[in-house]
């Protein structure tokens, strides 16, 4: 019942946001047009993608820009749809972009693009780095542009976009804004990737989307650590990652015997200590717990969450050599002596790292 109500509310908000997005876009376009004068690009000669699809092979780079007929969005009687998809190719993203502008006799305006969607295997090759280098120099996309990966082909996403009432880019933006469990700041953006490319000291989880029941949905995550791909993570492992990042508003926990609990007011603190040649990281999680179904003891809830944290930590360590707790970057502030010991030796640090979770819940 709650899922049904949430879906109805989401659909209503989509329609409302659709009109808002149009008027916001027109206002922004008008503002930039007023200051561009006659020397600027005429409005009718600009193209405003809401999402960009990217796919790169060894010798070819394909890009597709997804947009929408603005006149149809302005029409109050419009049923939605009227999405457009225009593609181009080249040996690099820069060539593909310039080829698009030449073939379509337009100037791309990417400052209002909602989402960048990369083929999942693209982050394993050098074209991913080249793309970031290009957009950093060209300053074409806003840094808060959302980033997703996908296993779906470019053609499949184009078809999905054409069938949706809300353009794919706008839908993904609304999906992030309406996420009930995660805080909005956990969303991966282009700015996050550019910062990580420069600093290379974090563990990031990149959401992977595919079509489910005619809508895009996140199915798993790709792990990026020190700006290197480290394999995949399940939805449950990603939930623990966001929990330890203080990025969850709430969390549903199912106990072994069927009882279900909703956790809120989630907070995570950390402590570090050296012990027997190991680095023990204590993650101390506190939360309020409310029974959704069945009955549960406070100790059972705490034990279950501790078990989930440990399982996610060791799964990622053993399968991907990835630190789901993203702890190394915190050493300088929280454990300066350990930081001095392992400075410049991050792989040795992660080999020595252990996780000791402590959970304290208040039953409501």
Briefly summarize what is shown:
By secondary structure, this protein is an alpha/beta fold. The chain has twelve helices and 14 strands.
Radius of gyration: 23 Å
Global geometry: globular
Count, helices: 12
Residue fraction in strands: 25-35%
Total number of beta strands: 14
State the secondary-structure class.
alpha/beta
What does this structure look like?
By secondary structure, the protein is α/β, with parallel strands linked by helices. It is built from twelve helices and 14 strands. β6, α4 and β7 form a beta-alpha-beta unit. α8 packs across α9. 30% of the residues are buried.
Write the layout of secondary structure elements.
Layout: H1 2-36, E1 46-47, E2 51-56, E3 61-68, H2 70-74, E4 83-90, H3 93-104, E5 107-108, E6 115-119, H4 126-138, E7 146-150, H5 154-163, H6 168-177, H7 190-199, E8 203-212, E9 215-225, E10 228-233, H8 235-244, E11 250-254, E12 260-275, E13 278-293, H9 298-320, H10 331-334, H11 336-342, H12 346-352, E14 353-363
Parallel strand pairs: 1-5, 2-6, 6-7, 7-8, 13-14
Antiparallel strand pairs: 2-3, 3-4, 8-9, 9-10, 11-12, 12-13
